[in-house]
Amino acid sequence: MASLISNLSSAISRLTLLRKPSLHFSVKTLRKLEADRKWCGPISPFLHASTNYDFAHFSSCPQAKTMNALGQDEELVVLGIETSCDDTAAAVVRSNGEILSQVVSSQEDLLVRYGGVAPKMAEEAHSLVIDQVVQEALDKAKVTEEDLSAVAVTIGPGLSLCLRVGVRKARKVAGTYALPIVGVHHMEAHALVARLVERELQFPFIALLISGGHNLLILARDLGHYIQLGTTIDDAIGEAYDKTAKWLGLDMRKSGGPAVEELAREGDENSVKFKVPMKQHKDCNFSYAGLKTQVRLAIESKNIDASIPIASASSEDRRARADIAASFQRVAVLHLEEKCERAIEWAMKMEPSIKHLVVSGGVASNQYVRSRLNKIVEKQALQLVCPPPSLCTDNGVMIAWTGIEHFQMGRYDPPPPACEPEDAMLDLRPRWPLGEEYAEGRSEARSLKTARVHPSLTSLIQASTQTTP
Ligand code: KG4
Ligand code: ZN
């Protein structure tokens, strides 16, 4: 069963951030308005028929703005819940950037057993620990639900079965305590958490988001306004790290990436000649499926037996595995470097004032990745912003923080009903693009995986802004 791992450092870590003063809105006012039924129309993303995209997901509600303007100088305290993949996470964050608590329960035993995320098992594991994780986050923050201003929760992209667990819990807390709720885009949260740790980070900026399921290069023009410069046409880099770790017989308990990174330090990165993917495509898209195949073939050709754990391998065998790990990592990251260089070029043409490249998502905790990308940004006189590893991998802080950013813009939903039926239809967005594709950078190389299900977050927000007088 999943075990609870609280934040590595102290339960209450304090990262203070001096943001420009914002007009906080009084939750008491909000609750009163809710009681008076003065909400501004159909803004819940959760219960609406998900086919009607004319309604924006987020409310850009005029009343909300009025409430902001009328609000007292009240600091927001937001609970963030994340269950989109294999980590059950919750955190409590203040609008001044103070992290009051962070709790993550990882499904490491399931990862070892299945060599990846099995949705049904992952759902069960989330369901088993969600109440405990949220309670622990509140306890460590020394707050109760009564002290919260809102609840933020990941509604996509991710595995539906898993998203559902978090959204149900969030709606239960929000419904019971009459709290507004913010539905958060998981990848936007990976990018925006950088603004919590780096107070100089203003829009516009470029972000490279690298995780187990996503490889995204975006131009973040403003909050909720993103242009997708590139994405993966098949696998993400984290998936390639995880499979490489599995085939090399590495210890998967902390997921594959850290194990490959560690072993690669012993190897010769030039010993195996892997081909850099997509050299011929002059775009910003990624592909890791071919590199995975190259790694598998190299492992087979060296007769490496993954059933012998690395700890029991002979020194010669260990050396061969380390060489493959190092050579894989060099080429996997070179692919990132090449696409980032092009993305910087494209983005600077659109927004010459850009000063930062954000690198976030689980793979951004890798030191080799950070140091190589740092060289790229230095060449361009930009600054690299990488959140600390505990905020790069999936966590509740990034969800709470993104909730705060949108909430302050008046984008939230009213409290759900106190007693919502178990079978209420939830608006979950397993495939949900962050922004529109950069028209000039369109590639012919694409696969069915990129087919969209929901309109992008950016288009929904733009539509809501246009319909708001
Ligand atoms: O963002 P994340 O925690 O979850 C997803 O949204 O997918 O990313 C998880 C991915 C996994 O593939 C994991 O192997 C990878 O991030 N990862 C790393 C490292 N730490 C985590 N990859 C390479 N090096 C690392 N140090
Ligand atoms: Zn993630």
Class of secondary structure makeup: alpha/beta
Biggest beta sheet attributes = 6 strands, mixed
Please tally the β strands and state the result. 12
Rg is: 22 Å
Describe this structure in words.
The chain has 469 residues and is of the alpha/beta class. Helix content is 40%, strand content 14%. The protein is built from 14 helices and twelve strands. It has helices spanning 27-35, 62-70, 108-114, 119-141, 160-176, 186-197, 237-247, 256-264, 289-301, 315-350, 367-379, 389-392, 396-408, 457-467; strands at 3-6, 77-82, 87-94, 99-106, 150-156, 181-185, 205-210, 215-222, 225-230, 356-360, 383-385, 436-437. The strands form two sheets. A six-stranded mixed sheet has the order 1-4-3-2-5-6, sandwiched between helices. A hairpin with a 4-residue loop joins strand 3 and strand 4 (99-106). Helix 7 (237-247) runs antiparallel to helix 10 and helix 8 crosses helix 10. The protein is globular. The protein starts with a strand and ends with a helix. The site of zinc ion has 5 residues, from helix 6. Its main location: mitochondrion. Its cofactor is a divalent metal cation. One of its GO terms (cellular component) is mitochondrion.
